[in-house]
Amino acid sequence: MPADKGLIFNIQRYSIHDGPGIRTIVFFQGCPLRCPWCSNPESQGAVRPLTWTKNGKTETISHWVTIDEVLDEIEKDEVFYRTSGGGVTLSGGECLVQSDFAANLLREVKALGINTAIETTGAMPLKAIKKVLPYTDYVMFDLKIMNPILAKRVIGDDVGQVKASFEAALATQTAQVTPRVPLIPGYTTKPENLQQIADYVHEVGINEIHILPFHQYGSQKYEYLKRNYTMKETPLLTEQEVDDIHQFFTDQKITAIVSGLE
Ligand code: SF4
């Protein structure tokens, strides 16, 4: 993977969902997982430029960019980062798939005095997160399916790898780490999975998590990609169901904050 160029599919300015304050989000192409609920299905798979067909037109949805090109976009909103306590977040896909580019970009952003964050699910060998941690102020770390056999079968995830990456982030003592749990009916919200998440965060000494209720915002993208979206008929969680999960974590002495978007 090149260290001086990255393949990205979006730069979103003025986000308030992906870390503190007003942020610019850089969406990285590529993800080794296959979560059936993924709201960015265009990011899945290898790091390669992709096209989709939208309103009868074929569009290229990811582009190679240099660090300077991304920095030019980022610097446009420096004043907002300063006044809101915001900054820059690398998202995806899984930004650790392009860990050399991610590390170089984060280093340059940090050198400008701008707060840096990553959204990750840690689904890469440990060395990937170790490259970016020295330049990362805030890690939003998704914990999904914790049973190793189910995780491997359903989303292609290696729970051992996830835990190793999570614990490496915690061990830095410099990055703030927030575990996030996407609440996906039939998958992550099963009682035994929630219990395994609670047990794990206790084990690593954390008492606060963010919970992100399931949404359907990405469903149209599956049509553009001519892919079947298996969760189209899955209803959103009711307020009561989210409250019950919140209460479950409260009973476990874990503060659960209902948070933005998965
Ligand atoms: S880890 Fe995120 S980007 Fe990758 S498949 Fe799952 S939801 Fe999609």
Automatic annotation (TrEMBL):
Keywords: 4Fe-4S, Iron, Iron-sulfur, Metal-binding, Oxidoreductase, S-adenosyl-L-methionine. InterPro entries: Aldolase_TIM, Organic_radical-activating, Organic_radical_activase, Radical_activat_CS, rSAM, rSAM_sf. The keyword S-adenosyl-L-methionine applies. SUPFAM superfamilies: Radical SAM enzymes. It is an enzyme of class 1 (oxidoreductase). Its EC number is 1.97.1.-. It comes from the Bacteria. GO terms for molecular function: oxidoreductase activity. The keyword S-adenosyl-L-methionine applies. Its cofactor is [4Fe-4S] cluster. Residues 17-253 form the Radical SAM core domain. NCBIfam families: PFLE_PFLC. Belongs to the organic radical-activating enzymes family. PANTHER family: PYRUVATE FORMATE-LYASE 2-ACTIVATING ENZYME, PYRUVATE FORMATE-LYASE-ACTIVATING ENZYME. This is Glycyl-radical enzyme activating protein. The lineage of its organism: Bacteria, Bacillati, Bacillota, Bacilli, Lactobacillales.
